[in-house]
Amino acid sequence: MPNRALAFILTSLLVSACGSKPAAAPKPSFVVGWSVYVGWNPWYYMAKSGILNKWADKYNVAIRVQRFDYAPSLDAFVAKNIDACAMTNMEALDMPASANIDTTSIITGDYSNGNDALMTRHDLKLDQLPGHKVLLVEKTVSQYLFERALTLNGLEKKIDQVKLVNTSDSDIATAFIGDTSQDAVVTWKPMVSQIAKQKDVKTLFNSSQIPGEIVDLMVVRTDILKRPDGSGERFAKALAGAWYETTKLMSGPAGADTDKVLKEIAAGSEDTLESYKEQLSTTNLFYAPQAAADFTTNPEFKTKMNLVRQFCFNHALLGANTKSVDDVGIQFPDGSVQGSKDRITLRFNANYMQMAAQGKL
Amino acid sequence: MLRIDASPNRITTWTLSWFLFAAGIALYFYTSHSRHIENPEDKVVPSLTQLAQGTADAFLKPDSEQKDAGPAEGSLPAKFFSSMLWTDTVASSKRFAWSMALLVPAVLLGLHMGMFPIIGTFFLRFILFFDKIIALSVLPILFIAFGIDELSKVMLIVIGVTPTIILDSFNLTKSVPPEQIVKGFTLGAHDFGVTYRIVMKQILPRVLNSIRLNLKSIMLFLFAGEMIASQDGLAFRIALLRRHMGMNVIIPYVLWVALLLFLVDLTMRLLNKKIHPWFREA
Fold first, then answer.
1. What residues does CATH 3.40.190.10 cover in chain A?
2. pLDDT tens digit string along B69-109?
3. What superfamily would CATH give domain A29-111+214-357?
């Protein structure tokens, strides 16, 4: 009897597996990962509202959008479980690119223009920080911002004297707010907004003082993009098309219609419209594809990437065995390369943004 | 074969007990190998060479970000004792030792609750309630009460583990046959004589076993605490290495922690056997 039951289950599984196979040739399907952040929430809206599906149909591909926590989304991208992922320029370099996963950035979404901040209690000034503790997530843009803040204020040599406390981003706000003996913290929004509301807390430095250095991207694995059947190209075009249709809706004339879109985007992180708008105000989101393309092709962007890669190298983020900062090659839209030309693993591609700007998608 | 009176010979026993280890290791290296064919620098499933490199770094080199780390020179032991693995182990061990020490009053409290009805009624209901609180879900309260430095890490373990130990000691105390207590009194013992010399002696080996079973919870809370906010420790390092896929160092760390836990457990088991030779349960 049990054997018969087992055989029945197996057969029905087999039948259902065969039955679910579509008759026509399957569309190439792709998975996009995103995590909660003001500049990435639109991906949630795009999938939910059907905008992404519309573009996917136009280019005859299937696209699924999946939400992750940030660190696991990077892990999934590096492990090649997902095809495209939202990440910052720094993580694109120190996660996939340094692990020899050839990665291409196709959309420069925004740069942090105040979303990341260094805040202190007890009227502590920047030059008083050496000898004190700072709560932050080590080896992330928070530490980058912190080092830039000290460097720009001539305190470069004293960076080593500040004690960093590696604090999980999910607990950093409550940890700093709860323990009033802590002097300083570096984090990003929305935690920054909660902490800034506390009495006696002052913001000493924020990312608007280093504009264009903390950049949020949509990256695709280069081998996917270069698939011989062209499906990767079509996938990228569909992403860009959907993205700029959404940003257009987001930047529409102020009023009920735009607010409705923004509210639904905010719902992607269970946020309110007011809070989301407040976060947008400190985000330089490139609503127009031309602005994004201009930013990415501007020679200044190379200078900024250079700062980021130096930081990554100094903290062994390019791999423990990297001998020089040049070991990982970064290619820019004009074809020029920072670092090794033989080992380019991070590419900035402005084609899709330009196509969107020219209405060619 | 599968009979309950089977008596496998030595070779069978040896083969059977190591089979899953061998299969696990083989599967790991198969996965690693196939991933490395695709990408020679794969970091997710490090190869043997990468693992060896990572292990050497962990066991012999100081933390590269450590400010006062001198050049690593000298003999192997000297290198080991200034390595990041060792400094992390020392930091975590201190927290671990503190929390173990704080289990002593917990056991005593459970014992007295079981012996003295007034103390029992006073604490029992509250501890039963407190035991069901998931410590990690009230972190903000812990931060306010204990800050985010060393104290909070130890307290997280204490709050997570002590109620279990208190209740277990209480139950063990209650399970001592009342005849023995009566006998103690008839032979002229006083309250504390009965408590410490009859009851405590008997429950102690079982309490030690109960702590052994809770070692993993202690470690889990310790890791959680170190991952929330810290400057050193085994879990701090693992959390940090995760930021750039340092799996070749994380895996040796995880194995090292497993070894340490095994040794602590073994020590406690041997100690239990040594002080309570009459005790015959596992």
1. 29-111+214-357, 116-209
2. 555 567 888 888 888 999 999 999 999 999 999 999 999 99
3. Periplasmic binding protein-like II (3.40.190.10)
Cα separation of A356 and A53, whole Å? 17
Size of interface A-B (CB pairs under 8 A): 96
A159 closest CA partner among A145, A176, A172: A145
Chain A hits for B54, CB-CB cut-off 8 Å, are 320
In the CATH scheme, what is the homologous superfamily, with its name and number, of domain B84-275?
A: MetI-like (1.10.3720.10)
- Residues in a beta bridge with A87: A217
Interface ipTM: 0.81
CB contact under 8 A, B41 and A99: yes
pTM of the model: 0.85
Q: What is the pLDDT of residues A214-269, one digit of tens each?
A: 999 999 999 999 999 999 999 999 999 999 999 999 998 988 999 999 999 999 88
3-state secondary structure B102-145: CHHHHHHHHHHHHHCHHHHHHHHHHHHHHHCCCHHHHHHHHHHH
CA distance A202 to A100: 41
CA–CA min distance B152, chain A (Å): 10
- CB of B138 within 8 Å of a chain A CB? The answer is no
Architecture of domain A116-209 in this structure: 3-Layer(aba) Sandwich (3.40)
Degrees, nearest 5: CA angle A26-A28-A32: 135
Residue type, A25: A
Q: Tokens for A270, please give them.
A: 């269970």
